[in-house]
């Protein structure tokens, strides 16, 4: 492993939830388990309301750039909208993958176990 604390793609999403970056701020990480995919660069694009099937939420949009010669033919870009609260729940994940096309994953519903009632549609701190 190139790092003592390696991360795969899904782990990176959870890692991003822990970052406290301001608008326009970013950082690089060399924690990807595949050394050919480092560094992974992350930056905050901004904050705005985002509507997904689960409702409308105040969100922070994060861009993750991953060097990936195999799947992306160079660099992959993934945009993730997280709730702009203490939980940073993933609301929307968007990417273009050469062999798969344009992909958008959206949060369908929240359950009471998430700390929000199923009909409120708003994340709370």
Protein model, in words:
The chain has 1 helix and 6 strands, in the order αββββββ. It has 125 residues and is mainly β. The protein has one domain (9-108). A 6-stranded antiparallel β-sheet has the order 1-2-3-4-5-6, with no helix packed on it. Strand 5 and strand 6 form a beta hairpin. The protein is globular and about 40 Å long. The protein starts with 8 loop residues before the first helix and ends in a 19-residue tail after the last strand.
The end-to-end distance, rounded to whole angstroms, is 36 Å
SS class: mainly beta
> What integer value in Å does the Rg equal?
15 Å
Total of DSSP H or I helical runs spanning 4+ residues: 1
What is the number of strand segments?
6
The structural domain count equals: 1
SSE string: HEEEEEE
pLDDT < 50 stretches? 117-125
Overall helicity: under 10%
Mean pLDDT: 81
Principal-axes geometry comes out as: globular
Biggest sheet features = 6 strands, antiparallel
Instruction: Report the β-strand fraction as a percent range.
Output: 35-45%
Strand order of the largest sheet: 1-2-3-4-5-6
Question: Helix and strand layout, with pairings?
Answer:
Elements: H1 9-16, E1 26-29, E2 40-52, E3 55-68, E4 74-83, E5 90-97, E6 101-106
Antiparallel strand pairs: 1-2, 2-3, 3-4, 4-5, 5-6
């Amino acid at each position: 492993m190139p790092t003592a604390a390696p991360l795969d793609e899904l782990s990176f999403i959870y890692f991003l939830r822990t970052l406290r970056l301001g608008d326009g701020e970013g950082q690089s990480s060399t924690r990807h388990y595949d050394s050919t995919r480092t560094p992974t660069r992350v930056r905050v694009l901004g904050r705005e309301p985002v509507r997904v099937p689960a409702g409308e939420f105040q969100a922070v949009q994060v861009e993750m750039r991953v060097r990936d010669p195999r799947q992306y033919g160079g660099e992959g870009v993934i945009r993730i909208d997280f709730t702009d609260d203490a939980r940073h729940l993933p609301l929307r994940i968007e990417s273009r993958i050469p062999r798969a096309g344009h992909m958008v994953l959206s949060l369908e519903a929240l359950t009471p176990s998430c700390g929000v009632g199923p009909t409120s549609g708003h994340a709370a701190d």
